[in-house]
């Protein structure tokens, strides 16, 4: 379960932030939550890998610890879901 927790948090972050950013970008339709969830997992893993390669650790910048790691996973998922939500909003427009 500990291995799945970051992916679950990425998905939650993407599912929450993705549809919000899609609506702000002018997108329509019911794909916002689905795209946000998929984008949260995929984008969150991608953002996590990119920050790892760059030597940039978001959780340690926020003070370290397990709670900050969870918050960093939510933020990374939100960024991934937001990007995919905005792209879906532009395509649907």
Explained architecture:
It is built from four helices and no strands. It has one domain (5-92). It is mainly alpha-helical and 93 residues long. The chain is elongated and about 40 Å long. The N and C termini lie far apart (39 Å). Helix 1 crosses helix 2 (31-54).
SSE map:
Layout: H1 5-24, H2 31-54, H3 58-61, H4 66-92
Structural descriptors:
mainly alpha; 81% helix; single chain
Q: Give the tally of structural domains.
A: 1
Q: What is the CA-based Rg, rounded? A: 13 Å
Summarize model confidence as the mean pLDDT. Answer: 74
Task: Estimate the helix proportion, in percent.
Answer: over 70%
Number of E-state strands: 0
The largest pleated sheet is described as: none
Q: Give the CA-CA distance, first to last residue.
A: 39 Å
- What shape does the CA trace take? elongated
Structural class: mainly alpha
Number of helices: 4
How much of the residues is beta strand, in percent?
under 5%
What letter string, H or E per element, gives the SSE order?
Answer: HHHH
Question: Uncertain spans, ≥5 residues at pLDDT below 50?
Answer: none
Write a concise synopsis of the structure shown.
By secondary structure, this protein is an all-alpha fold. The protein is built from 4 helices and no strands.
């Amino acid at each position: 379960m500990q291995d799945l927790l970051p992916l679950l948090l990425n998905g939650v972050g993407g599912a929450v932030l993705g549809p919000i950013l899609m609506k702000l970008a002018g997108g329509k339709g019911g794909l916002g939550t689905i795209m946000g969830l998929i984008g949260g997992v995929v984008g969150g893993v991608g953002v996590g890998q990119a920050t790892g390669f760059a030597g940039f650790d978001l959780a340690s910048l926020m003070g370290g610890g397990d709670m900050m790691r969870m918050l960093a996973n939510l933020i990374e998922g939100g960024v991934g879901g937001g990007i995919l939500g905005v792209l879906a909003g532009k395509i649907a427009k």
